[in-house]
Sequence to fold (163 residues):
Amino acid sequence: MNSKDKIYTLPQLLEQVQTWRDQGQIIVFTNGCFDLLHLGHVDYLEKARQLGDKLILGLNTDASISRIKGPSRPLQDEMSRARVMASLLFVDAVVLFNEDTPLELIEAIQPDILVKGDDYAVAQIVGHEVVQARGGAVKTVPLVKGYSTTNIVKKIENNCNLN
Ligand SMILES: Nc1ncnc2c1ncn2[C@@H]1O[C@H](COP(=O)(O)OP(=O)(O)OP(=O)(O)O)[C@@H](O)[C@H]1O
Ligand SMILES: O=P(O)(O)O[C@@H]1O[C@H]([C@H](O)CO)[C@@H](O)[C@H](O)[C@@H]1O
Fold:
């Protein structure tokens, strides 16, 4: 499957989710900005996928990221980020969302398992009530220490200042 085929609109994704559910597949959902892909993302997404059968990634649009992380972000546009994330073997679907949070997306998809890195407590994870209310699980995956997009940006800026 070409990575482009893994990027869905929400109506397309809901059809795909129904097909997966009819096959008895456990649907895992996570979300994030994923501006610059790094080892922490890869480690946590691989582990998230192993919690079920299909991993859906909700990806913030450029406008959403600019609102929640500031006007200097994102560094990579949404279609670039979507293709990069869709290229990962353990990501089964990518869907963009333009809101500040993925709450509406999670209410529409009704995943069986909701996952974030453990930089978030379960009670902080947007949508945890929705998933728990239908008997689903909300889990966190330990961070790989020292890896963040912000740190990468800072390293680049420091290197530029040194040269
Ligand atoms: N070092 C890490 N190890 C494991 N998971 C991580 C790590 N950093 C971020 N994540 C997870 O990746 C997802 C996307 O986070 P995000 O795109 O904000 O990455 P980030 O590197 O923290 O970016 P920023 O520095 O801009 O906040 C979140 O669920 C977060 O919990
Ligand atoms: O990449 P981030 O900043 O970890 O992703 C954010 O996660 C928020 C989270 O789901 C809160 O529990 C979400 O509200 C926000 O839109 C980003 O996706």
Summary: Strands lie at 7-8, 27-32, 54-60, 93-97, 113-117, 137-141.
